[in-house]
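User: I'm new to structure prediction. If I give you an amino acid sequence, what do you actually give back? Let's try with this one:
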Amino acid sequence: MKSPLDGVRLLDVPTVRDDRGALSALEGGRHIPFAVARVFYMHAMTADRGGHAHPRTEQCVLAVAGSFAVTVTDGRDTAAYRLDDPARGLYLPPMVFLDIRDISPDAVCLVLASTHYEPKSVIRSLDVYREALAGA
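Assistant: Good question. You get back a string of structure tokens that encode the predicted 3D arrangement of the chain. For your 136 residues, that looks like this:
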């Protein structure tokens, strides 16, 4: 059985640098493998985030300021990524359970998502997540 973790990968964000600074841009369907339906960002974070999975949503997670660790799991295997470069994002396919931890005080986490937010579809328990994967 294919694991949702098989699709997790780091993405380089096209960035142009000159004497004015850097400009980074992502285009849905071109630099990320989905059309963007929602953009949100987290800042002034005082506690860990995540602890959930989205059954139908693809995401690209970026540290546009500061840094944080993203841990992803399929309920069996785990992978960890340190995001600390705004020119590098992390692609997450649907059904990846994620946690965001080790957040620097200046961190800003930007997320591009393929769907609108559906609170009732979010899986917020690792046990329920494992059951959902076993039933798939």
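You can read the tokens as a compact description of the fold. Here is one thing that stands out. The helical segments are 126-135.
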